[in-house]
Amino acid sequence: MGLIHDFYRRDAKKWSMTFTDKDDNPINITNSTVTFTMKVNPDDDDSLAVIQKNATLTDPTNGVARFELTGGVGGDTDVTPREYYYDIIIFDPSNQPTTVDNSKLQ
C-alpha cells in the first residue's frame, strides 16, 4: 500500500513528505524536482496523466516537500471516479529520476 490515502474527487488535498535514506536520515533535495503523477494505467506515458504536480520544497536540506492539489469543479482533483495509479518521483539536479512511492488509488 502506498503513502497516499483518502483521495476523494473534488476534495482539495495537501500533504507533506520527508524523504529519508535507508538509515532514516533526511535526503537533501535542494535543486531537485519532486513530482506526483496520477494515471489510469501505470504504464501510460506521463503525457497521459490526469494529474501531474510538482511539490514545493519547503525544507529541502531536510528532505521536506509539500504537495497541494486544488479541489472543486475544474480543480486538480476533478477527475472521473475510478481506479488510478500514482507515483512520486524525485528528479535530482541532473534530472535523474528516483521513484520513492507508487501505488493504486480508488
The class by helix and strand makeup works out as mainly beta
Might you state the CATH topology name? Immunoglobulin-like
Helix run count: 0
The helix fraction, in percent, is under 10%
CATH architecture: Sandwich
Number of domains: 1
- Identify the CATH class: Mainly Beta
The beta-strand count equals: 7
Order of helices and strands: EEEEEEE
What would the principal axes of the Cα set say about the shape? globular
The major sheet is characterized as: 4 strands, antiparallel
Summarize the structure.
This protein has 106 residues and is mostly beta strands. 0% of the residues lie in helices and 42% in strands.
3D structure, described in words:
The termini are close together. The chain has 106 residues and is an all-beta fold. The chain is 0% helix and 42% strand. The strands form two sheets. It has a four-stranded antiparallel sheet with strand order 3-2-6-7, with no helix packed on it. The protein has a three-stranded antiparallel sheet with strand order 1-5-4, with no helix packed on it.
List the helices and strands and how they pair.
Layout (H helix, E strand, L loop, with lengths): L12 E6 L14 E7 L11 E4 L1 E4 L4 E6 L14 E8 L5 E9 L1
Antiparallel strand pairs: 1-5, 2-3, 2-6, 4-5, 6-7
